[in-house]
Amino acid sequence: MTEKKIRVLIAKPGLDGHDRGAKVVARALRDDGMEVIYTGLRQTPEMIAEAALQEDVDVVGLSILSGAHNALVPQVIADLRANGQTDVVLFLGGIIPEDDIKTLLDQGVYKIYGPGTDTREVCKDIREAVKSKA
Amino acid sequence: MSSALLDALRKGNRLALSRILSQVENGTEAGKAALEELFLETGNAHKIGITGPPGSGKSTLVNALARELRRREPSKKVAIIAVDPSSPFTGGAVLGDRVRMLDLEVDKQIFIRSMASRGALGGLAEQTEALSQVFDAAGYDFVLIETVGAGQSEVDVVNLAHTTIVVDTPGTGDDIQSIKAGILEIADVLVVNKADRPGVDQSVTHLRNMIEMGYARSINNGKHHLQDFSENTVDEPAPAGWIPPILKTIACQYQGIEELTDAVLTHAAYLRESGQWHAKDKAAIQANIRRQLIAGLLSDFNQKAPGEMIDSLIEQAQNRTISPNEAVRVLLTYNRNNSLESSE
To answer: How far is B23 from chain A (nearest CA, A)?
Structure first.
């Protein structure tokens, strides 16, 4: 019972309005016993970093289907670091071309999930990542 | 908890504040120690509770109220604690109040923290009061506490807030609903939100009738909204001179928010002048001590009482040879004798 709850921020940076994926993941993490803070659409990287700071989350999940991931993700990472949150696990979901995946992983993204991902896999990965940081 | 972290909090470091909030929320030893130290620096914040049914617009109203408070008092800081329910099955939660508060995320003098209720049933989480104390110590002038969507009896927020705002919407029941006991009674300010919907004037009339019925009574019985526990021991404040105003708002359009802010600030001034600010503070501390005392005594007792004895009493009660009341009497007697022995 006293096990610390994993806190996850699920955010949608940028301008696309397709939030079904983000909501499905939020719900799946909830059903896995995590506390999920959902911030809604059209967030700037600065807003996401600010919410992550105020909520002291262990994990940030970004959902991007606009194609702007190469601009948005590095900025989120930079803003998180600027706030001193260097130990946050960052994962990404959406439509991300093969060519960009390696670059994003190198920049510090923990995992990238495309369409059709089993949400149980996401839950398991998050638990492992948080455990290894503790 | 390192004292460096506490010092950083005192200097306004928001990451330090956030980390300490987590420690306190999780009830860690470090969190408890931090809270003990920080409590001595509390007592300045105006705590404002916002409660009402799910979907009545609490979060949107909090967003608008926080923005207006900041506009009027640019030198003051605002904290928001938004509580949403945890799943009774998995313990997980989706905390979605921030979605309605996006206006506020660019203002560094506002700090929003979402909390899962983690099984508590009174509309707040167990550590909500503790978190409000951390914000108070960190120099936040206003602490807005948004409850989970509340029904009729989730009224814990009244023990914690100086000012309680109850949010209702048009069309939620007839005049019988409004004379029932519960959530409407705890209001210092009543808000009918979504006032562009049909039925708003009817709702206001029901609420006004309720207030008028209660007012004659409350003159004779000042603090109708403090809990019984404080009733006999707190210095009697001046007779109730506060009649909850009923305000119409359309929170998403910022309509009625100036009037709401006026009401909240007027109420704070009223509390200070009438001595009720002091009385509420005392009542909150009494309730806090009482709660911890009960938990402590129970845990002491559990360590002391032989498990077999409890098991045997449960079995006897199940066989209907004794009643649960008698079982408790036996246990209390055992506890008393045991305490006497150990103190001699």
So the answer is: 10
Check if B135 contacts A (Cβ < 8 Å): no
Angle at A44 between CA A38 and CA A46, to 5 degrees: 95
Element (H, E) at A9: strand A7-11
Yes or no, beta carbons of B114 and A55 under 8 Å apart: yes
Determine the length of chain A: 134
d(CA A26, CA B5): 31
Would you state the pLDDT for residue A7? 96
Contacts of B110 in chain A (CB under 8 A): none
- pTM of the entire predicted model: 0.86
Query: Residue B256 — pLDDT band, cuts 50, 70, 90?
Result: very high
CB contact under 8 A, A56 and B21: yes
Q: What is the CATH code of the structural domain delimited by A7-133?
A: 3.40.50.280
Domain range summary for chain A, segments of one domain joined by +:
7-133
Residue percentage of chain A with pLDDT more than 90? 82
CA distance linking residue A37 with residue A8, whole number of Å? 6
57-96 in B: which are within 8 Å (CB) of A? 86-87, 90-96
Give yes or no for residue B37 having a pLDDT over 90: yes
- Give the architecture (CATH level 2) of B42-275: 3-Layer(aba) Sandwich (3.40)
Residues 110-129 on B with a CB inside 8 Å of A are 111-114, 116, 118
Reduce the DSSP state of residue A39 to 3 states and report it.
coil
Residues in chain B: 344
Which pLDDT belongs to residue A91? 96
- Is residue A86 within 8 angstroms of chain B, CB to CB? no
pLDDT tens digit sequence for B39-72: 999 999 999 999 988 888 999 999 999 999 999 9
